[in-house]
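Supplementary Note 3. Input sequence used for the single-chain structure prediction.
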Amino acid sequence: MLFHDAYNTYPEIWRPGIRDGKDKAAILWASALGFVMSAGAIALCALVGVGGIWSGLGVALLVWLAGTAARSLS
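The predicted structure, written as discrete structure tokens, is reproduced below.
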């Protein structure tokens, strides 16, 4: 409800189902996926033994590079 007025400022950028308020499942799934991905990043840092921001950024960089390499190979 915080940004409810801003949702329809530029309605042409939203998919028709979301713009009309009929497809709320996409918003719910995207929100849930964001929480799961954040939990996965925290779990990975805990598993690796990250103790600070710089080592956390190093893990993030390695994950980003691995994802980029995997995408370029497929």
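The longest helix spans residues 25-48. The chain has a mean pLDDT of 81.
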